[in-house]
Here is the input.
Amino acid sequence: MWQDLHAQLEPAGLTVVTVALDLEPDRARPWIEAAAPTHPSLIDREHRVDELFGICNVPMAVWIDESGTLVRPAESARLEPNEYAAVEISDEMPEQMRRVIEGLQQSPDFGPAYRAAIVDWVERGADSPFAMSPDEVIEASQPRPPEHSRAAACFELGIALHEAGDTDGAVRRWKQAHELYPDNWTYKRQAWTLASTPEGADSDMAQEVHDVYGTSWSEEFLAAGGGATYGIVPRL
Here is the structure.
C-alpha cells in the first residue's frame, strides 16, 4: 500500500521511503526487492530511526518537508481501515486468540483519514492543516526521558554481542532495554523474533519466547491495554 501511495503521489513531489527494522537483512529482502526499482525501501539494522525519530512500533511514520524540516513527529501510520474490524470471533477460537483479536479490533481506525491528510499535505504544502509548525511538532512529540537513551544504549550493545556470537549477553542487554523502555515494541519484537524464529524460516509473528524472555507478544499486547494503546494515534 505504501508503494502504491508513492506511485500515486511521486509526480506531485512526495517520496515515500519505507524502512525495515531488522538485524537480519535477508528477512526483509523479499519486500525490498519487490519495491524496487520505483519505491525507495531500506533496512535499518541498528534501529537508528528509533533513536533519531522516536519510532517505537511499526508501522509508524514521520513527515519531512522539502527543506528537511520535520512537520509531523513519529506516529502510527496506516492507509487502510482496520483489517481486524470485520473478523468474526467464534466460540471455537482459543481464548488467547479471541482476546488478541478483540484487542486488535479496538485499534483506532484512522487509516483513510491518514491517507487523506498526506494527500492534502502534498497538495497544499505548509498551508495544509496537517503540517505542524516546529513548536507543534515538539508539543506533539513523545517524551524522551533518560531511560530511553539508556535503553537505546543497551539495545545497541545487544546488537554488538549478538553479532559477536554472544547470545546470552545479547539477551541480557535486550532485557534491560525492554525494562527501561517497555513501550518500545521494536526493541521487543526484534529480540523476540530472533529467539522464536528458526533459522531460514519466515519471521514468527506469535513470538512465544517464554523459555528466553518469560513472555510472548500476545501477553505483552494484552497487558499493555490491547489495540487501544498499541501505538501513537496521529492527531488529525
In short: The beta strands are 18-20, 41-43, 60-64, 70-76. The longest strand covers residues 70-76.
